[in-house]
């Protein structure tokens, strides 16, 4: 009986399928009744709210998370950028304890989309240095937005 209950409880986690099918109401219901939510299920919910443009709900859920990782922060960051709120994205970016190439490229993309190319060139220089560091350890990041920014300037 315990095994059956554990199996049932695991089925209650919101998943990418709920979000991709735009069934955010069901996903939130499953999230709320789940006995425990981990950082992954919380990130999926934040992404779901961002996808439908409800950044207030995304931020509220993000703020209530007991555990956050760089993916959590980047998920919120992407949500603001994709919903055209560069100001809030910059605030989140400033709050981040850990940033990675994805964080920087998201902000750079936000500036590029917002047509503030003078600032995006500064970020490009920082990101280029980071990219070179990554290449020196064998990682070859492909960031298409850098090419677009360079062409626009």
From TrEMBL:
Cross-referenced InterPro entries: PPR_At4g14850-like_plant, PPR_rpt, TPR-like_helical_dom_sf
Stretches forming PPR repeats: 38-68, 69-103
Domain of life: Eukaryota
Naturally occurring in which organism (per UniProt): Amborella trichopoda
GO molecular function ontology, one term from the record: RNA binding
Name of this protein: Pentatricopeptide repeat-containing protein
Keywords carried by this UniProt record: Repeat
Gene3D superfamilies registered for this protein in UniProt: Tetratricopeptide repeat domain (1.25.40.10)
Any Pfam family matching the protein: PPR_2
GO biological process, one term: RNA modification
């Amino acid at each position: 009986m315990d095994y059956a209950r554990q199996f049932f409880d695991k089925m209650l986690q919101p998943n990418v399928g709920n979000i991709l099918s735009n069934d955010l109401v069901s996903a939130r219901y499953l999230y709320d009744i789940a006995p425990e939510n981990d950082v992954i299920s919380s990130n999926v919910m934040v992404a779901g709210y961002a996808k439908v443009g409800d950044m207030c709900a995304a931020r509220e859920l993000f703020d209530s998370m007991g555990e956050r990782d760089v993916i959590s922060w980047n998920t919120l960051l992407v949500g603001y950028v994709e919903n055209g709120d560069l100001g809030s994205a910059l605030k989140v970016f400033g709050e981040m304890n850990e940033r990675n190439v994805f964080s920087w490229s998201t902000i750079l993309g936000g500036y590029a989309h917002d047509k503030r190319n003078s600032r995006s060139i500064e970020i490009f220089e920082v990101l280029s240095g980071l990219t070179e560091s990554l290449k020196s350890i064998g990682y070859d990041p492909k960031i298409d937005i850098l090419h677009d920014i360079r062409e626009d300037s």
